[in-house]
Structures are given as C-alpha cells and as structure tokens.
Design goal:
This protein is mainly beta and 398 residues long. The chain has a single domain, classed as 6 Propeller (Neuraminidase), CATH 2.120.10.30. The protein contains 1 helix and 30 strands. The strands form 8 sheets. A 6-stranded antiparallel beta sheet has the order 2-1-25-24-23-22, with no helix packed on it. Strands 3-30-29-28 form a 4-stranded antiparallel beta sheet, with no helix packed on it. The protein has a 4-stranded antiparallel beta sheet with strand order 4-5-6-7, with no helix packed on it. Strand 6 and strand 7 form a beta hairpin. The chain is globular. It starts with a strand and ends in a 5-residue tail after the last strand. The relative contact order is 0.15.
C-alpha cells in the first residue's frame, strides 16, 4: 500500500498489474489520495508539465516521449499518445522559452540534446528532431537532465560520471596535473571522465558550452527553484564504501563549485581509494545543502508552488528516491519532502509517500519522476511497475 507521511493510506490506489498493490483498501489519512493515471508503460522516468497542463513523460527504454492530457480535476487521461519517438534513452525534458508560450520542446537523450518545434496543445511533434548538443558521453550513468534558467538565456545539462569512482581515468591528465588544474575549472576530471560528473551550460542554440560545477557524481535530476531562480541537483553518490557512506544529497548548484567526486565526499572527507592524490583540493569541496540516506538513489526533484496542498507545503521540494540495489537492507523507494523556510533549506526532509517495499526482497514500485501539475496535484512516475500517479489533497479537484 502507499503511505503518506509515514502513515498507511490509500483509497483510490489500485495497480491492477501487480498483486502487491492490491492492499490499497485503507481509508485516506491526512487528506491525501493517489489515483492511477496510466500503467503498462515500459520505463516512465522524468515527467514535466507543459504550460497548458499536458504531462510529458520520458519513456526511456521505449525511446519515446509520451503525452497525457488529463480530464479536468481527474486522473483520467482525456487524450494520450506518443509526442516523439526514435530517441535514444530520453530522460530530461524542458520547454523553451520558459513561460506560457514555448516554441520548442527540448529532450535530453543519453548522448545528445534535441528539440522539436512546439505550440501549446500539440499532442505530437510538428517537426523532426533538431540536434542542439551532440557527442555527449553516454556510457555508465546515462540519465541526462536539462533545465533552463528563468531568463531563458542558459540551458543546463547534467552529465553523470562514466564509472563509480573514476577507476579508468588515470592518475594524471596528459601534460601533468599542475597544468590541468591551472587551465580547467576547480575539480574538473580528465581522460574518460572529461566533461562528466558535472553540470554544463550552453546557449539555447547549444553554443558556448562551459562547465558550471564539477564533482557531482550523478546529478540525475535538476530543477530551478521558483522562489530564488537557483539551479538544484539531486545527486547519487559513490558505491562500495559501506551501507551508510557517503550520503546522497540535494544541492543548490553554485557556479564554479566543486562537490568532491572522486577525491572527496561531503566536504573534506577523502575517498580512501584516492588517498593523497589531490591535496590541492583539500578543503575546497562545497558541502551540499540537504543530505539523504546513503544509497537512496534520488532521481528527480520538484518544488511545490501549487495552492491545493496545505499552505505549509508551498516552497518545499519533493524528491523521488528510486531505492537501493547496493545495500544490506533496502532504503529509498519513496517520495520525500525537503523542508524550506524563506526559500532556504532547513537541511531536514520527511517521508511523503512510502509503501512501495513489500519486504527486503520485494518491491512493487520505484519512484523516478515528480512534477507539480497545473492544478496543484503532484505527479509521480515509477518504473518498477511502469505507472504514473496523481496525488491530491482533499477531494482531488482543482
């Protein structure tokens, strides 16, 4: 059963494709409910909301972007279909220019960013894919997210590392470490990791690429905080240091910052596998804003600016935790709420949706995407069972 704020609830929640969710028969507590939008999807990942309210969902394994137009005040799609196909593991989706009248839909493939001509209400791409950024390294961490700055002048791209902890990068770059450090952004990786474990920035036409921040092992979800205009990342940290080290995290991405990978983690904690390799970076890693339990695997983040949830939710952020594959006891497999006060994170988070774990050996769902619908509902995708959900407060009507 799905649970809200750690309490078992669900009235309308039924996943007919799995027996695990047949437990959804408890009365709703705290006023929240979840309704099924769609099921049977190959691999629903990132979900983004168009200005007119349509839901765009990256179906990564099917190499397509799906679209859903919900009936007013309902989880039932009035129309749905495939907006664009023939993609390559699509993940991030963004509308350009930001605002009410976008002219393009940008899609981040594992190896490129493409865009499609778009007018409000289009249910199918009206043009062929135009490549904006090409030759993105696609091995290992392949989830590429994208976001535009509020003024529309900057296109951000997250590129995860090509390994767990830079095993194939080599001890020094060609030409020597000193020369590299003087010519590159702080903490920039080289060799097979060149341009990876980083957030990049481009003009909207894909020109003038640069590195914004480094040392982000796998920023698998990005968004812009409406209250401040700051870019936020949720990051999957490294493996094989134990069940509880290091924490995953969410961070407001600072221009020019280095977040530690692969030499350090969470500030000045040196990775023992790279001991003594970068003393020049000691004390220079930026500490993230919100730490989360190790191996929770945060995949997406969305700030709540709707009006249909209780007032205290406004300005907070929801994060989808995909769940651990590399920990003795499972963790993650839930949606959590990051708490903010006056636009700043308190450093705390709390469970919002749980109940995807049946036992330490079985789960029925793995949350991936979170987005706030135009009517204030929270949209959640999960790829363990291929479903999309609409979470509402009260009677669910806008």
């Amino acid at each position: 059963m799905i649970r809200f704020a750690g309490l078992a609830i669900s009235a309308t929640l039924l996943v007919t494709t799995t027996a695990f969710a047949q437990q959804a028969d408890k009365p709703v507590l705290k006023g929240f409910s979840a309704e099924l939008i769609a099921s049977g999807i190959d691999n629903p990942r990132v979900v983004r909301v168009a200005p007119n309210g349509d839901l765009f969902v990256a179906d990564s394994d099917a190499n397509q972007v799906r679209i859903y137009r919900l009936a007013e005040g309902s989880a039932k799609p009035a129309e749905d279909g495939i907006f664009a196909g023939n993609l390559n593991q699509p993940y991030g989706i963004a509308f350009y220019p930001p605002g009410d009248s976008p002219q393009w839909v940008y899609v981040a493939n594992s190896d490129s960013i493409v865009r499609f001509a778009y007018g409000n209400g289009d249910l199918k791409a009206s043009s062929e894919a135009e490549t904006i950024v090409g030759n993105i390294p696609a091995s290992h961490h392949w989830t590429r997210d994208i976001a535009f700055s509020p003024d529309g002048k900057t296109l951000y791209l997250s590129v995860g590392s090509g390994s767990n902890v830079a095993e194939g990068m080599g001890k020094e770059p060609k030409g020597g470490l000193d020369a590299w450090a003087k010519s590159q952004p702080l903490g920039a990786a080289w060799g097979s990791e060149d341009g990876r474990a980083a957030v990049l920035a481009f003009d909207p036409n894909g020109k003038n690429g640069r590195i914004v921040a480094t040392g982000l092992r796998n920023c698998s979800g990005m968004t812009v905080q409406p209250a401040t205009g700051a870019l936020w990342c949720v990051v999957n940290e490294r493996d094989a240091l134990g069940d509880n080290v290091p924490p995953e995290y969410a961070a407001a991405v600072k221009d020019g910052a280095f977040y530690g990978w692969p030499w350090y983690y969470i500030g000045n904690n040196e990775d023992p596998r790279h001991k003594g390799e970068r003393p020049d970076l000691a004390g220079k890693a930026t500490i993230p804003d919100v730490l989360m339990q190790a191996h929770s695997s945060p995949l997406n983040i969305a700030f709540y600016e709707g009006t249909t949830f209780p007032a205290e939710y406004k300005g907070d952020a929801f994060v989808a935790l995909h769940g651990s594959w590399n920990r003795g006891n499972r963790t993650g497999y839930k949606v959590v709420r990051l708490l903010f006060r006056d636009g700043k994170p308190t450093g705390e988070y709390e469970d919002f949706i749980t109940g995807f774990v049946v036992s330490n050996g079985e789960v029925w769902g793995r949350p991936v995407g979170v987005a706030v619908a135009k009517d204030g509902a929270l949209i959640v995708t999960e790829d363990g069972n291929g479903t999309i959900w609409r979470v509402t407060h009260g009677d669910g009507r806008s």
